[in-house]
Design a protein that fits this description.
This protein is α/β, with parallel strands linked by helices. The chain folds into two domains: 210 residues, Spore Coat Polysaccharide Biosynthesis Protein SpsA, Chain A (Alpha-Beta Complex); 57 residues, no CATH class. Helices cover 35% and strands 20% of the residues. Strand 2, helix 2 and strand 3 form a beta-alpha-beta unit. Helix 8 crosses helix 9. The radius of gyration is 20 Å and the shape is globular. The N terminus is likely disordered.
């Protein structure tokens, strides 16, 4: 196992856990942390509860006493109803060299932490590492193999896994989860890229994403068009001016600014072709 050096004042990793009524997943989630091949002695855990009405806090206190980690802090800010601001609350308290936000309905495979830290420690030019993952539903499971990072792809779809480890310097530049888009992770990675972040894909499934009825991603699907348009308007310098115009016109309900397919932001060329089709059909 690799050995990493940190100061006595700084944890190696800060793990932020935003939670709302996910107590039923606690044993599986925290058990996967306890089962890591990497020691947790330099890992601080910051659990941020968003007003749960189940046994989430009881479960967190139970595991805080069991996990052999550097520290385990439990925060209970006023309820917001969105994971992004909850993550921001925890990240603002983090003191780690590396930052990691984990949803407690997911499950880490044993080599997750060690592999991610090894990648960033041995590749100083990279500031974000993300891996493939296993996706499970009540009926099936399959591997999600993600592409190697290409910034152009981030303009049309999110190809970065939400469970990504990154250097705290990105947070220190002012990158934050925003409340106006349900595609909070996508917007966050765009901000990281614009702040100078360089992304490294780990071509290996390192965690399990469990699909269930309470996933916040279901809300993102319902608000797909608005969620994508806000990403563009939040980061206009990253997108073609024609795409920025599309985002503005989407909220104006213009016929030439539909939402397009779920999870996909159109390109300038696609918008031009659509405009040509609309003009040919005599629409305005």
């Amino acid at each position: 196992m690799a050995v990493w050096c940190t100061s006595h004042l700084m944890a190696l990793i800060s793990i932020i856990i935003p939670n709302y009524n996910y107590g039923r997943f606690a044993d599986r989630f925290y058990g996967s942390l306890a089962g890591q091949t990497m020691s947790l002695k330099d890992v601080e855990i910051i659990f941020v509860d968003d007003g749960s009405s189940d046994d989430s806090l009881e479960q967190a206190r139970k595991w805080a006493a069991k996990l052999a980690c550097r520290s385990f802090e439990i925060l209970t800010p006023p309820r917001t109803g969105r994971p992004g601001p909850v993550r921001n609350t925890g990240l603002a308290k983090a003191a780690g060299k590396y930052l990691l936000s984990l949803d407690p309905d997911d499950e880490l495979l044993p080599e997750f932490l060690e592999t991610h830290v090894d990648v960033l420690e041995s590749n100083p030019k990279f500031s974000v590492s993300y891996s493939d993952y296993l996706e499970t539903t009540p009926d099936k499971s399959f591997n999600r193999f993600l592409p190697d990072f290409n910034p152009v792809q981030l303009r049309t779809q999110n190809t970065v896994a939400p469970c990504a480890l990154y250097r705290r310097e990105l947070w220190d530049t002012g990158v934050r989860y925003r409340e106006n888009t349900t595609y909070e992770d996508w917007d966050y990675w765009v901000q990281c890229l614009m702040a100078g972040g360089k992304f490294k894909h780990i071509a290996q499934p390192l965690y399990i994403h469990h699909i269930h009825e309470s996933n916040f991603s279901h809300q993102a699907e319902k608000e797909d068009g608005a969620g994508k348009a806000y990403i563009v308007l939040n980061n206009p310098g990253f997108f073609n001016p024609a795409v920025v115009q599309w985002a503005q016109d989407y909220f104006r309900r213009r016929v030439h600014a539909p939402s397009f397919q779920r999870g996909y932001i159109p390109t300038a060329d696609e918008l031009l072709k659509l405009s040509d089709v609309i003009r040919a059909a005599g629409c305005k």
